[in-house]
Prior knowledge:
Oligomer: single chain
Amino acid sequence: MVASTSIRQDHTPGESCMDSTITVKNAHIGDRVVSSEEVLSFPFGIPGFEQERRFVLVDDADFEPFQWLVSTENPDATFLVCSPYTIVPDYTFQMDDAIVDQLQAEKPEDITVVCIVTLRRRFEDSTINLKAPIVMNRNKGRGRQLVLQRERYNIRHPMFFKERPEYEPQRTIRIGADEE
């Protein structure tokens, strides 16, 4: 999902950006000010948006459980995302050690996982891309979108379900290569 976004960096050129903020202006979320420490670096971009390397993950209390992944460099690169565990509580996948190293994750709990959502006119027809999760270490400011090869998830998994699960979703991420 793409929306118009304006980005403003609030610091004087030449001064330290450690305490700077970024103002995100978006038709979907209004004006949001986020700390520059919340900026996530995506060294490879996102497939289809490889040139976009810096994003912020913005919560929207009025639109939970959804969030917005907003590029800080391109006003048009905004993605509606959602935790896959909200839709598929037993969602699991394998991450290579090289990706874990890139994210600077020491344990699975360091990783936040979201997936891109496609809203349709009828909400019941909306889908989530479980085949290509976005993995982030928000503490280290690192992120990457994976394209899962072994797992049998769909790029257009239905979002709609008649009943919400009665239990808290549990996330499972296996780190390292499979022992097959």
